[in-house]
């Protein structure tokens, strides 16, 4: 059972913006940095965002992250059909001494 | 560029032991990084299994801790996963990954390199 809660799905038309939320607790998001992963159908997860809002060099700036309190958010602007995927948040849980992932959100481009 | 490739049986009998190796290329397991295992049951979310440092220090998912063991073989530049007493609920795609973990006041923690994943079926 995941400790990080995400909406099951979000959708928008091409070119529009979607926002994915990730809700946790003080023991995880509240006191540690958040990362985000994109999982295209049938492939391994790929790191999108780390340290709340940093992007690996190959990730376009259409993807951005933020954190406030015990929640984090991933924004995808200029939505493209290639962005259709599952997205997961992740962080460290200090109480569990373990990594934790979100429940996952499926992004659909209408 | 670090690459990871897992290997091991794709079919394990119930009550048996699941064993997977993860070969690391383009880098060394003897580094300032941790190395981890994540799994994904069909149609489900990612689940942290555990991680290991080159010193042998480990962290495990509390829900799996009684059945899981992660080890590291520096001579082979690989790390391994063993999960005992498996059931159908352990059927999943298993990924190995490089973990970036630092304490910068708060914990900076993320997986930046992933293997392609291997399906292990318990049946």
Give a verbal description of the structure.
The complex is a heterodimer of chains A (110) and B (123). Chain A is mainly beta. Chain A is built from no helices and 9 strands. In chain A, strands 1, 3, 4, 7, 8 and 9 form a 6-stranded mixed beta sheet that branches. Chain A has a 3-stranded antiparallel beta sheet with strand order 2-6-5, with no helix packed on it. The termini of chain A are far apart. In chain B, 39% of the residues are buried. The N and C termini of chain B lie far apart (36 Å). Chain B has 123 residues and is mainly β. In chain B, a hairpin with a 5-residue loop joins strand 4 and strand 5. Chain B has no helices and 11 strands. In chain B, 0% of the residues lie in helices and 58% in strands. At the A-B interface, strand 3, strand 7 and strand 8 of A face strand 5, strand 9 and strand 10 of B.
In brief, what are we looking at here?
The complex is a heterodimer of chains A (110) and B (123). With 110 residues, chain A is mostly beta strands. Chain A has strands at 9-12, 18-23, 35-39, 46-49, 63-68, 71-76, 85-93, 98-101, 105-109.
What labels describe this entry?
heterodimer, A: mainly beta, six-stranded mixed sheet, three-stranded antiparallel sheet, 45% strand, globular, B: 123 residues, mainly beta, four-stranded antiparallel sheet, 11 strands, 0% helix
């Amino acid at each position: 059972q995941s400790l990080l809660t995400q909406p099951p799905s979000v959708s928008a038309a091409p070119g529009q913006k979607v926002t994915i939320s990730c809700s946790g607790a003080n023991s995880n998001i509240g006191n540690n940095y958040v990362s985000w992963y994109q999982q295209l159908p049938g492939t391994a997860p790929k790191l999108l965002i780390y340290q709340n809002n940093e992007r690996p060099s190959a990730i376009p700036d259409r993807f951005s992250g933020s954190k406030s309190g015990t929640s984090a958010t991933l924004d995808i602007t200029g939505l493209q059909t290639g962005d259709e995927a599952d997205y997961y948040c992740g962080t460290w849980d200090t109480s569990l001494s373990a990594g934790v992932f979100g429940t996952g959100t499926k992004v659909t481009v209408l | 560029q670090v690459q990871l490739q897992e290997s091991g049986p794709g079919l394990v009998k119930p009550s048996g032991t699941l064993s997977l190796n993860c070969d690391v290329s383009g880098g060394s397991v003897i580094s300032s990084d941790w190395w981890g295992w994540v799994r994904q049951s069909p149609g489900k979310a990612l689940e942290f299994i555990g991680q290991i440092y080159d010193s042998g220090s480990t962290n495990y998912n509390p829900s799996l801790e009684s059945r899981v063991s992660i080890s590291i073989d520096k001579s082979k530049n690989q790390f391994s996963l063993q999960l005992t007493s498996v059931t159908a609920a352990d059927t999943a795609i298993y990924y190995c990954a490089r973990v970036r973990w630092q304490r910068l006041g708060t914990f900076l923690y993320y997986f930046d390199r992933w293997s392609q994943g291997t399906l292990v079926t318990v049946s």
